[in-house]
Design brief:
Growth Hormone, Chain: A, 17 helices, mainly alpha
């Protein structure tokens, strides 16, 4: 392994995690429902639909971006562009106030689109940096460092929110500043990635216009998907279990405030602690994964997710909910890291960008299915967030059933034979 490059690669996880932690999970989602949408009955559904629109864009573009990155050896150039896009549109969220749906929704869609596209591109570097027997460990290091990055952004935001609230400021005053804090930390922390991470891919001969060439590669992958049937099965599994994970990420603060009565400060503190347990889970399970195998690790973590959902559903007070939240933390870091490593393990080396693009497609498709399901359940049930959380648990059960049928050895052989 190339230690400096591995560190530079992992620093991108550190840099971009502030976006998901502050914007999607802890602060702006609850602000959107309570302030921007004015606590309207459709507020949660509107938030999930805005995210879904951004994920739909990624679903359409991810395989093409991945194929283009492979054929043009452009992973790093594209990563620069997506990073700048996410930073600029996140900073733009600082201009959103009460009732500004016309501004909030486009900015959420664009910032999340650039975030998700960059997430796919950085993941495609993993097989170039880690040995076969260290994929889980290196992925775990990155995800663990990512949660520490989320802690930095969230901690800085919490410090500012506490200071602002002590002076009588409301959410309309302090939430916009947290968007600027998040964008600034993302910009600074991503610099090591662009300074030290190398592009090793070699551009391929141009046999057609780049769009047509990208389409041809994706069509070839889909046409011959039976060559990679275990990878294909895992990508279907990803759609289901990530539907549950993305629901929790997108709606954790909403659930805490609407179902448990948490204040903004309570929610920030909760997610701060969850990021610590998530970092521990990602780091520890990276080593576990290399020892017990990819499939067993994912089954173990998804079982933990089922337990966490049941505990959150049953919680009537803060104590049990805190227990559920920390189980979520351990499973969040470990399941995300394990999934990324498994895709790297099952992907043909020459098509890592393309297959991580398909992984991104699966994750983003799940990011539409899960949160929209939650939003629809709350809307149709008159705001029953507990029922919506229980329904979310079903996605993890389906994921366990699918991943249990994967033959990891056969999948690895297919990746190197084709």
């Amino acid at each position: 392994m190339r230690r400096r490059e591995v560190w530079a690669w992992a620093m991108y996880d550190f840099a971009n995690s502030g976006y998901t932690t502050v914007v999607i999970t802890a602060v702006f989602n609850a602000y959107f429902v309570a302030v921007v949408a004015g606590n309207a009955p459709w507020g949660t559904l509107a938030w999930t639909l805005a995210l879904s629109a951004s994920y739909a864009l990624i679903v359409v573009t991810a395989p093409l971006i991945g194929a283009y990155a492979d054929t043009r050896a452009a992973k790093k150039r594209l990563l620069v562009a997506t990073t700048l896009g996410c930073i600029l549109f996140t900073a733009g969220l600082a201009a959103v106030g009460r009732g500004d749906l016309w501004l909030a929704i486009p900015l959420v869609i664009l910032s999340n689109f650039f975030f998700g596209s960059g997430e796919n591109l950085i993941a495609a570097f993993l097989p170039e940096l880690a040995r076969e027997d260290a994929l889980g460990r290196v992925s775990g290091w990155g995800w663990s460092l990512g949660y520490l990055g989320g802690l930095v952004s969230l901690g800085a935001s919490l410090a500012y929110v506490s200071w602002a609230q002590s002076r009588g400021a409301g959410a309309s005053a302090f939430v916009p500043v947290t968007m600027l804090i998040t964008a600034g930390i993302f910009a600074l922390a991503s610099l090591p990635t662009f300074l030290f991470l190398k592009e090793r891919a070699v551009p391929q001969p141009r046999t057609a216009h780049f769009v047509m060439q990208a389409f041809q590669r994706v069509r070839d992958t889909l046409t011959h998907v039976r060559r990679y049937r275990d990878l294909a099965r895992f990508l279907v599994c990803v759609v289901f279990y990530q539907a549950g994970i993305q629901t929790v990420i997108a709606l954790a603060a909403v659930y805490a405030e609407q179902a448990m009565g948490f204040t903004t400060r309570d929610t920030l503190l909760l997610i701060l602690v969850v990021n610590v347990t998530a970092a521990v889970g990602a780091f520890a399970f990276g080593h576990v994964q290399d020892r017990i195998g990819h499939v067993r690790t994912i089954i173990l973590t998804l079982s933990g997710w089922v337990l966490a959902v049941v505990l959150a559903w049953a919680a009537e007070g803060p104590v049990l909910f805190w227990v559920a939240a920390n189980v979520v933390g351990i499973c969040l870091g470990s399941s995300q890291s394990a999934g990324r490593a498994m895709v790297g393990y099952l992907s043909p080396p020459a098509r890592s960008g393309e297959f991580f693009g398909l992984w991104g497609l699966a994750v983003k498709l799940s990011s539409i299915v899960g949160p929209v399901t939650y939003g629809l359940v709350t809307w149709l049930s008159g705001g029953d967030h507990r029922l919506a959380m229980l329904v979310t648990g079903g996605y993890f059960v389906i994921g366990i059933a699918i991943v249990a049928g994967i033959d990891i050895g056969r999948g690895r052989r297919a990746a190197h034979e084709n």
